[in-house]
Specification:
With 411 residues, the protein is an alpha/beta fold. The chain has four domains: 104 residues, Rossmann fold (3-Layer(aba) Sandwich); 72 residues, 2-Layer Sandwich (Dna Ligase, domain 1); 128 residues, D-amino Acid Aminotransferase, Chain A, domain 1 (2-Layer Sandwich); 61 residues, no CATH class. 33% of the residues lie in helices and 21% in strands. Strand 1, helix 1 and strand 2 form a beta-alpha-beta unit.
């Protein structure tokens, strides 16, 4: 049976990856689109798989109207068994917060225990559940609201400390205040007031944690798993973050893969069983060199930013929408010399200082087989659209950029 998938667009990279993955599965995709002040150039609109978009209300402006628009779309199109696939936290949150949406669409995981699955969206709840399973997490203090902060809250923690949102919000307010960083570091007690000052109007809950210092990129591993409807692991792989922008608390601009350590797989299987989860899941691990424990810092129950990378190396993490067929685990070792590059993030990381010549040398020195987030030889137009924007932004020759992309891009 062909699945009819409601695919809201917010993060263009993730949306495009999901669009391509769903096309590979033969799904019927209904793109749900909305805009906001400062909306990016939508490269995904150039994809040959993008058609018949349905405008809906931005959930940040009105979650109720957003859900109403979706339910009207389901009714008008006569969709009998709609599957809702979020592509950002902004359009994931209604799935946790709005019971009308939950009752009218399908999604991954067993949603009979609504409160348990809601832990994926709230780090305070998540760490409490992981504690029940004796799964290590960073030492943490929970703050319901910034106005309740007192210095005594941090007394159980040792500096340096980081703080970050305990719960995502539809406007991604924290990241805006933190200038695109996912967390903010407080190095010592004297820095507390200064670091908290920009967040005095922030209304969401926060977590404060002891910063886990690690010395190798191999000590911060996201574990990606695809779980069948009966709870068995269809496929699993760890990502290796070769370059992060902004540094340390940003997003991977270059991602590679490695085989998951046995300990991480065992923890992953325990989490999947506890939450009765099926479908794609990402568990973010960090190795604490002080106590020699792998600690869980986050769980994501939606497709992740570079999901298209895995489709292109033979592992479609949305495959449970079609079947529970297992993948050959050896694909990880086959593709250990591949990396996935977000070209726009790479140029941000180098502060526009890349031109065709420097980029060519950089990719040569990287000595990896490369796939690009937007450019796919079988669906090239989104990548060409991105290259034109980069050329306008940096002043680089569009011909030089496209030549380099053609030279290094594979699959």
């Amino acid at each position: 049976m062909r699945r009819e998938v409601l695919l809201p667009r917010a993060n263009d990279t993730l949306f495009l990856g999901a669009l391509r993955s769903l096309n590979q599965l033969g799904s019927d995709v209904i793109p749900l689109t909305y805009q906001w002040d400062g909306s990016p150039k939508w490269h995904s609109s150039k994809s040959k798989f993008f058609n018949s978009e349905t405008p809906v209300t931005n959930p940040h402006l009105s979650q109720e109207k957003y859900v109403s628009d979706i339910l009207n779309t389901i009714a008008q199109k006569g969709i009998e068994s709609p599957f809702y696939l979020p592509t950002s936290d902004t359009n994931l949150i209604p799935l946790y917060k709005n019971k009308k949406l939950v009752q009218n669409v399908s999604y991954f995981g067993d949603r009979s225990n609504f409160q348990l699955i809601d832990a994926f969206n709230n780090k305070g709840l998540l760490y409490a559940e992981l504690l029940k399973l004796d799964i290590p997490t960073p030492k943490t203090c929970y703050l319901p609201n910034i106005c309740q902060f007192t210095p005594n809250l941090l007394s159980p923690l040792s500096f340096p400390i980081i703080f970050k949102p305990a719960e995502k919000d539809t406007g991604q307010t924290f990241y805006s205040l933190a200038k695109r960083y996912k967390a903010v570091e407080i190095k010592c007690k004297n820095d507390v007031e200064k670091k908290l000052k920009p967040f005095q109007q922030y209304n969401g809950p926060l977590v404060f944690q002891e910063k886990v210092v690690f010395s190798s990129e191999d000590n911060e591993l996201p574990l990606y798993m695809n779980v069948s409807t009966n709870g068995s692991i269809i496929s699993s792989v760890c990502g290796v973050k070769h370059l992060i922008n902004p540094p340390r608390f940003g997003t991977a601009a270059i991602l590679g893969v490695c085989a998951p350590p046995k300990e991480l797989l065992e923890i992953g299987e325990l989490i999947v069983s506890h939450f009765n989860w099926f479908g794609p899941i990402m568990i973010e691990f960090i190795f604490n060199e002080k106590n020699e424990n792998w600690e869980v810092i986050e769980i994501n129950g939606r497709p992740w930013l570079m999901i298209d990378f895995f489709r292109r190396i033979g592992c479609n993490f949305l495959s449970t929408l079609k079947s529970d067929q297992h993948h050959d685990a050896k694909f990880v070792s086959d593709y250990a010399d591949f990396v996935h590059i977000d070209l726009s993030l790479l140029f941000y990381a180098f502060r526009k200082k890349l031109d065709g010549f420097v980029l060519n040398n950089y990719l040569n020195e990287l000595d990896k087989k490369v796939t690009f987030t937007h450019f796919d030889p079988k669906d090239p137009e989104p990548g060409l659209s991105e290259a034109h924007i980069i050329s306008e932004w940096t002043g680089n020759s569009i011909k030089s950029l496209i030549k380099t992309i053609d030279k290094f891009g594979v699959n």
